[in-house]
Amino acid sequence: MRGALLVAGTTSDAGKSVVTAGVCRWLARRGVRVAPFKAQNMSLNSFVTAEGAEIGRAQVAQAWAAGVEPSADMNPILLKPGGERRSQVVVMGKPFAEVDAMEYGAYKDRLREVALQAYWRLREKYDVVVCEGAGSPAEINLRRGDIANMGLARAAGIPVVVVGDIDRGGVFAAMYGTVALLEAADQALISGFVVNKFRGAPELLAPGLESLRRLTGRPVFGVLPWLDGLWLDLEDSLALDNRQVPVDEAAGERLRVVVVRYPRISNFTDVDALAAEPGVSVRFVSRAGDAAEVREADLVVLPGSRATVSDLEWLRSTGLADAVRGRRGPVLGICGGYQMLGHSIVDEVESSVGRVAGLGLLPVTVEFARDKTLARPEGTAYGCRVSAYEIHHGVVTVTGDAEPFLDGCRVGDVWGTTWHGALENDDFRRAFLADVAARAGREFVPAPGVSFAGLRERQFDALGDLVERYVDTEALLELIEKGAPAGLPVLPPGGDV
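Structure for Cobyric acid synthase, as requested:
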């Protein structure tokens, strides 16, 4: 079979990413060569591919679900917000520009061409390309310059399925309204719906599904049930509010890990492997009232940041910086968090504020370079091989006595590294946690059988199972191969069919 599908959503976080990953895994298990695609992604959770390109972590996860190597073509445009109005634009995996919301419009025509070329390269290489939309296609204020939703679907003739999150409420209105707000040529590609995160009796939902079909002339291809413990690499830190990583509920006393969630937190999936370890609990904190938790945790993690200087100032304003500096116990800084732990930061690139003082817990200085470091390093720590990836402008220089640690350094109970993804290496993670527990005076026996890669694979299989069990897969296959059905009704806004 050959073809494509675009998974759109009624809102952000409706379930586009997980449905796309589920469709990729389901098709891959059928022997189909499938690849994910997101033309334009806004996310601070990114990854470095084997070719040295930075792309959104969600597309990486979808590629893994499809059983293929992630590439820049799968996410040709990545927007990384650095403030309320400014973002770094990453094109085909490399930094392209720093723009505000209005300036970005000047690049849209050029970027649309880049995205379409990437899409067609994937179509040549794979049997099926499963595209993920961005936000909602019904954001009609953005339709003129749209690259990722109906702009892509129209340009490439891709049928569209709209996913709605019923757990939010109002899913029928959102689905009907999504279609009705679009112009006729866009509506012609909206081929049906998938209801996501349903809890309850299916028979109570059935009348609504039938009414939606009658009112729109489009079927509901499936109703995906709420599945506890389901997770996937997220794009948006706002989704951390509902994040659930499977843990061993039978485990007894837990090693308590606190992760500081500053406003521009990035690569927060670095701690997923900790949360999946039996005997470890992970909690994100973000308020001044959380200072006690920071002081009392067995391990505090300062994760990556897209705006290191700004997030460091926020850390001070909340009092959490004092809690980190005043605690007696292990602290791990990753990338931006590592930079914050040093003596000083000179930044004329991200914030342009010049020199600022760090927390002073590690003997390092940081100077931001214009060129971004994108790498896939390998090394050794605790006698274990470690594979990771790097994404940063800050160049760290060790200025005093410190032990080397994963291309970073360590002094006493404080570790710092520029490497993302290191904790996904099972042997290293267990050795590191054992050291943390000993220094925190806690009993912790690592579980040798835990494989984080295996856990992720089981999540992909669970998503594939959801699609196979709860979606009309025959109808989906026909849609992918033949495109949107001809003669779909056009809904006038607020009108009847």
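The first strand starts at residue 3 and ends at 9.
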